[in-house]
Every structure is written in C-alpha cells, then in structure tokens.
Design goal:
The chain is of the alpha+beta class. Helices cover about 20% and strands about 25% of the residues.
Amino acid sequence: MCLAVPGRVLDIGERDGTRMATVDFGGVQKEVCLEYLPDLQVGEYAIVHVGFALQRLDEESAKQTLELFAQLGMLQEEFGDPWEAAAAAGGAPWPFADDPDGPEGPDGPEGPDGLAVPAGAAPHGEVRQEEVRK
C-alpha cells in the first residue's frame, strides 16, 4: 500500500534545479520534492505522496495522523525495509541485523563490507588458492 503521509520540513535546498526538502515522518527522514508547494517553509507540515509534497497541513492534524499510522504499524509498512518485512513474514530472522551474535555474526566471519562470508568462500576481495587457474 502506498500512503500519503504527513511530514515536517526540516530543511530546504535545491538539487539539479528542483526545490527539495528533508522531511521528517515521525522519526524517518526522506528527501521530498517541493515543486507542487513552492512556498512551503521549514517547520511546516505537508502531506507527501511518492516523494512529492502535495498539500500543506496544520501541525495538530499531522501529529494525530502520524500517531495513528504508528499505532497501526503503517509507518513501518510504508518506510520500513521490504526485505526485512518479507523475512519476518516468512518466519526467518533478518540476516543483516546489527551484530546479532557478535563480530562473527550468525554465519561466521564477515568480509570488510560487513556482510557474512558463506562457509567455504573466500573473504570479499580475496581469491581462494584452488580458484586460481594457471
């Protein structure tokens, strides 16, 4: 489901000739296009849909809506990681959780990018000796 979510404008700038803002949606911050609301200012609230601020909203209405969305779990549904949600729905733990079992992680040592190295594989950026062909 794709919602129109109220958010508070934190800062405004320009990117490639387009007026953009960083908007806070109850703790989640996203970049939003302000072309439909060119006079929107820092501190004001707007309803945002698919990355575009569409309508100005008063603070009380915005906070009530954000609270309701949070209670219903809709903010996580809208802004959460879809891969994490799919893993949870399938009953599997999210494999990229922050340090679930210490520095080695659940599957053994990690490569320099923080991803687990599968058993029998060389760490990222290294070549196993038997893989080298002469």
